[in-house]
Amino acid sequence: MVIDIHLSIVKLYRMRASVFPVITKRELEVLGRVQAGLKSAEIAKELEISINTVSNHRKSILSKTRSSNAWEMVQWGIKHGLLE
């Protein structure tokens, strides 16, 4: 019985992840700064990370949200209640 419950939780998590991608805390921080109009270099300086890391986060967000550009990923964040 315990194994069945665990498998159900795993299935539910996988289903949730496929419907609503998991955005990490750092990706959310980057997304909020993109919404504010900051460039990658400005985001990197503010978060004290490299520009390459910002670029990787942006690419990850684009992929997870199935967006083509920054505007679309910000709209996705607003639609799903992650941004105001």
Describe the structure.
By secondary structure, this protein is mainly α. The protein has a single domain, classed as Winged helix-like DNA-binding domain superfamily/Winged helix DNA-binding domain (Arc Repressor Mutant, subunit A, Orthogonal Bundle). Helices cover 74% and strands 0% of the residues. The chain has five helices and no strands. It is globular and about 30 Å long. The chain starts with a helix and ends in a 5-residue tail after the last helix. The N terminus is likely disordered.
Question: Could you write a compact summary of the structure shown?
Answer:
The protein is mainly alpha-helical and 84 residues long. The chain has five helices and no strands. It has one domain: Arc Repressor Mutant, subunit A, CATH 1.10.10.10.
Give the low-pLDDT segments: 1-9
Taking the alpha carbons of the first and last residues, their distance comes to 43 Å
What CATH architecture do you see?
Orthogonal Bundle
Listing every helix as H and every strand as E from the N terminus to the C terminus, the arrangement reads HHHHH
CATH topology: Arc Repressor Mutant, subunit A
How many strands, which pairing sense, and closed or not: the largest β-sheet? Answer: none
Q: Look at the structure and name the CATH superfamily.
A: Winged helix-like DNA-binding domain superfamily/Winged helix DNA-binding domain
> Percentage of helical residues?
over 70%
Number of domains: 1
Number of strands: 0
Q: Note the overall shape.
A: globular
Structural class: mainly alpha
Strand residue percentage: under 5%
CATH top level?
Mainly Alpha
Mean pLDDT: 83
Count of helix runs: 5
- Radius of gyration, CA atoms, in whole angstroms: 16 Å
